[in-house]
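Hi, here's the filled form for the chain we discussed.

Project: internal
Contact: R.S.
Residues: 1092
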Amino acid sequence: EGRQLSYGELNVRSNQVAHRLIEQGIGPDDRVAICVERSLEMIVGLLGILKAGAGYVPLDPAYPAERLAYLLKDSEPRAVLVQTATADVLSAVVVQVINLDDPRLQEQSVSNPQVDSLSSAHLAYVIYTSGSTGLPKGVQVEHRNVARLFTATQPWFDFGPTDVWALFHSFAFDFSVWEIWGALVNGGELLIVPQLVSRSPQECYALICESGVTVLNQTPSAFRQLIAAQGESHQAHSLRQVIFGGEALETGILKPWYARAVNAGTQLVNMYGITETTVHVTYRALQAADALQAGVSPIGVRIPDLQTYVLDANREPVPVGVVGELYVGGAGVARGYLNRPELNKERFIVDPFSTDKHARLYRTGDLARWTVEGTLDYLGRNDDQVKIRGFRIELGEVEAQLSACTGVREAVVIAREDVPGDKRLVAYVIPAQGATPSAADLRDELLLNLAEHMLPSAFVTLEALPLTTNGKLDRKALPVPDQSALASRAYEAPQGEAETIIAGLWQELLGVEQVGRHDHFFELGGHSLLAVKLIERMRQQDLSADVRVLFGQPTLAALAAAVGKQMRIVVPANLIPAGCEHITPEMLPLVDLDQDTIDRVVASVPGGVANVQDIYALAPLQEGILYHHLAAAEGDPYLQYALFSFDSLERIQQFTAALQGVVSRHDILRTGVLWERLDEPVQVVWRHAELALEEVRLDPAAGDIADQLCAALDPRHYRLDIRQAPMMRIGYTHDPANNRWLGMLLFHHMVDDATSLGILTSEIEAFMSGQAERLPASVPYRNYVAQARLGVSREAHEAFFRDMLSDIDEPTLPFGLHNVQGDGQGIQEVRQVVDAALGQRLRAQARKLGVGPASLYHLGWARVLGALAGRDEVVFGTVLLGRMQAGEGADRALGMFINTLPLRVDLGDQPVSNGVRKTHANLSALLAHEHASLVLAQRCSGVEAPTPLFSALLNYRHLENHSGTDSAAAWEGIQALAGEERTNYPLTLSVDDLGEGFNLTVMAEAQIGAERVCGYMQRVMHQLIDALEQAPQTPLSNLSILPRSEREQLLQGWNLSEKNFADDLLIHRAVEAWALKQPSATALRFEGRQLS
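And the returned structure, exactly as it came back:
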């Protein structure tokens, strides 16, 4: 209609509404509902309600009648504002109805109403949000909450009268509070975007350009579509600020935006917020580099008058980098939920960190973590974490990686359970223009960055993502995937007898032609009734199983490995005689090889059959070491070294001769491992194996010789051929600048452990001092392999670990670290000495409780990991000596005996004294199963491979001195300079028990900080001993890992308010001030009309 009226007219019209409401007896803290369409009258009505002293309750006329009826009943408004077009939307309204189109409103006073006793502590609005019970809950927000929102954020945005804001969202969505009042309290212009235009990205972008919008507020879902619309348009925009809210931002969606030069003048901002804390909580100004960082959503720093805490289940702060629940305090915390006293007690809690007894925190239900810079990352809702086969998966992380895939414009991932009990991830993909990415292509590309358990099992292609009226993703409207959307698993033929038998049964029961070892029973059409039939058929084939195993591990390979054949084997002797000319399968009772394979193995050994002493399988941990050796792209994570200095070349030769003598004594040092073209790897004992001594030629002019030698033989780049015996060699060189010779001994973990190194050192010493004839007879490593494979039955191992782990369906992953196949790179190492007095007190408490010190350290480490992983039921790997059940002479045998197995520690509120006793009992019970494989143990849990059951280790070591009385003389002219221990786990604690004192060594990924973790352990041990001495009933959960400095930084340092922001303002008073200052300036625009 082309009328252009002033800011003053908005004030007049809203005053008339206010006076009508006041006539009805409406005043402070009353509620007035408003059910109108997007229009100028909508803003007039909202402002009029505030001027009357009441709080507005927005009712979107597009809501279903049932929801509107509930909102009216729950909010109990004193009056309802409508338009003629919405008058019939509300049924059975029992309160006064005022039609904003009624011309009689113009008869009311145009003066600003003066409402006695109205203050900023009175109600401004009640906005309803979705409730977990299905019933919406009304959030009561006061004037002061809203007023300080704009004063506290103004330094970031510098909003003013020249800004044009777009009202994009429904006024029933709290983002509209920021849009409407952000424009009007700053004297700006508010463009009301028509409902149909807001649903069309192309029309919306055109309107933004034509109207000169400078401030745009968007959900990320809506902005993705706006980015695409911009790509199809030639219009230029005037956007100064684009502010994201309403849902998590995956920054990767912004790549196309930042790629366009026309957008260079626009600042994008990510603001995390919730209705209960008044729209926004944090601020993060985005840069182009952020679009390259896939993964979590960076939400930045808190608004200065708020406090943000990341807390654990006990409402204690979690360390930097650890995921916890976000709590928000300060001036933005709303009054509470309307008519929900029990929910208010649950969500709006007393602030335990504040000196103000009235201070409250809002428990958001959102997951976050602190960065070292003091900013926050958002990781989704508690209920956005889905659990797939025991692993908690952040859907946002999968979406981020999928959105970055070739040919993908947008992507959403949800968890569906279309088959009861079979929850799976389903991806919905919007292809880029002209692209047609297949499910197989997307799966392959995701595999480059995601673990297999995080891969969607179905990929559904859509033309556009469905959105709700608020511009958020409408997850309920996403279609059920059909068969064509299922991601087929890469086929690999069944291996071994058990897999072949079970595959045949699957084919028969499921009616499929081909079953691969990675196929999933339920994906192929299996269900609970068929599962029962399958288990019965397996029993008929002498395969032990039960239904729980199938439901926990439904892939063919995992099922076959979990059940196995029921059989018992007698431990045999070595049947290869000296002088043997032909080795047959019957001579190899510890491995199953056919004649052709034996001949190939023998042919690979220098000297052939005459040089083969024995062939047998690998011990449990050797299998894992071989896996990592083969998986390493460069170097070898299990290759160790020791650097020595020698006073002469002759001394090196003497040392080498002594070591050769030890090699000749022990079969494990004359062993090579073969795996190529074999069904299972084997180790071959040679009768004779020569230790290699090689000169490394280096140039003194190129730098320090020791540094050069270490670089030349660095295990991160250098590999030994472990097929050849011995798995060790010496590289030496002359260091003229220091008048010495240097030798680096390389040795592989496949054939030694910490105990073996001590024995090896003492035997080298015996040879060098002429005492070799006094050494006891060597113990063959085959004895251990036989015990490990055949001593305790597989069934007994499984029964033990099922009892321990069957209800563990989530891994223990401190800091979220889950890569347990590292190569040692990027690992930081810190060693600390335990205070002598604490060590003495610790041993005293151990004696008092009748346990070893190891039990106390295991319990302390469990408490640290529980805090770092956010778990009360903690599982971590403990390194066992492996010699308890290894047979006679195991204490003096060389070889790889140690084994890593899971230890479960339940923390919670049990007393520390009970915790120590239970940990001791669990460790003691574990010793009987020290030869079980970690793979078997994990299969007995509810965490399905390849997800690791744990990602942290504890290695408790008793360090003994094996040197004799002539030690100094034997080592004359030789000095140990350096050595290195490496780990493929991201977090390892080693405790060295020195007899009297203790040393701690932490190896951790550099970004975690080994020194920090070591400090946590030291603090917990101090608290544990204090509690055992003074209050043994202290709950384990009371032991805090945080040092005072970090706790203060989390609670105070990153939560200090620089100043108090104005919160005594009334929203409508700010609008009245602008009406007085610039009465003719345009306030509102809608379609072709303007209201100024």
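Let me know if anything looks off before we file it.
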